[in-house]
């Protein structure tokens, strides 16, 4: 009887030990499986969170299909999360850690969204500021161009550097005309560009000059050349004897030696008065002067003279003719 009882007790203990071992192994297996599922669930939750954020950023969540898709994903994510929580609760381990991890991921996703919003806001602000700055700059440039006006001063002189008063200076492009005072004429309120100046005065040849204004006042010197006129010269002939005494009543002939086809070929004759003869209104050129002769009781004398823009004077010395 005792043996049977002992055998029964031994058998019961063996069965109890076996059951405990199996339960322990089952617990270990369930714990490992729970941890695996928890890790997998956190990864899946993060992935679904990123997709959902991208979906909302693109604005797809406003459509009917998008709402359905977003709801399905949210439900699926909720199911996965609930499963993870239940597994963690059944195992008795890691529940709070997994929830904390999930909250951390959600926080990271929220931070990413806020950063993207900040970047978009920053870009919009920069674009607006830059655009406003460009527009303001263009308006400022237009106003600056309208206000940029300059003065052009013309100084009018002759070939000797003397100022010419009352000369006419015309600004052809602007159809404006000014008369010089102390040789100066001024035009104001001119924009950038090229201008044609024309200056003229009595007794002078007209001259013109192109002047460019480029962001500053300008000054220009206009030199007027004397007008070409038929200028004439005077020739004075003094006739004396060998002793230096003036001879009156002596005939003096003047003849141009220039080719008649090229020059005047002029001939003149006059008698001395107090030893002097003056010929006026002579053109430039070479002339031959002849004085004396048998009739004047003086030997004939010839002299060449050239007139070139200035009056001239010539001395002729006559010697008494020898009697045969």
From TrEMBL:
Residue spans of biased composition, Gly residues class: 61-71
UniProt key word Protease: yes
Q: Which domain of life is it from?
A: Archaea
**Acidic residues compositional bias: what residue ranges?**
73-101, 109-146
GO MF, any single term: carboxypeptidase activity
Q: Name one Pfam family in it.
A: CarboxypepD_reg
**What range(s) does the Fervidolysin/DR-A0283-like Ig-like domain occupy?**
234-295
This chain's protein is named Carboxypeptidase regulatory-like domain-containing protein
Q: Which organism is it from?
A: Natronobacterium haloterrestre (Halobiforma haloterrestris)
């Amino acid at each position: 009887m005792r043996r049977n009882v002992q055998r029964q007790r031994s058998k019961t203990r063996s069965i109890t030990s076996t059951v405990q071992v199996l339960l322990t192994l089952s617990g270990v297996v369930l714990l490992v499986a729970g941890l695996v599922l928890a890790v997998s669930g956190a990864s899946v939750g993060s992935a679904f969170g990123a997709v959902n954020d991208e979906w909302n950023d693109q604005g797809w969540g406003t459509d009917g299909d998008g709402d359905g898709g977003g709801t399905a994903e949210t439900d699926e994510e909720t199911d996965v999360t609930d499963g993870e929580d239940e597994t963690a609760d059944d195992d008795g381990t890691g529940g709070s850690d997994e929830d904390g991890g999930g909250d951390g991921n959600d926080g990271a996703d929220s931070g990413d969204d806020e950063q993207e919003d900040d970047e978009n806001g920053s870009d919009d602000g920069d674009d607006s500021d830059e655009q406003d700055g460009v527009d303001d700059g263009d308006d400022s440039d237009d106003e600056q161009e309208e206000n940029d006006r300059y003065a052009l001063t013309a100084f009018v002189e002759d070939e000797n550097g003397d100022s010419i008063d009352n000369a006419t200076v015309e600004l052809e492009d602007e159809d404006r005309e000014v008369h010089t005072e102390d040789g100066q004429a001024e035009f104001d309120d001119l924009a950038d560009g090229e201008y044609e100046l024309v200056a003229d005065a009595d007794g002078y040849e007209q001259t013109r000059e192109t002047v460019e204004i480029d962001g500053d006042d300008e000054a220009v010197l206009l030199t007027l050349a004397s007008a070409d006129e038929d200028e004439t010269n005077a020739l004075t002939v003094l006739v004396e004897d060998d002793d230096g005494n003036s001879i009156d009543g002596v005939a003096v002939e003047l003849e141009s030696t220039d080719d008649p086809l090229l020059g005047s070929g002029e001939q003149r004759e006059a008698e001395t008065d107090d030893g002097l003869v003056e010929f006026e209104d002579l053109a430039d050129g070479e002339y031959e002067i002849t004085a004396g002769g048998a009739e004047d009781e003086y030997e004939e004398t010839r002299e060449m003279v050239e007139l070139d823009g200035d009056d001239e004077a010539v001395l002729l010395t006559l010697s008494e003719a020898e009697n045969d």
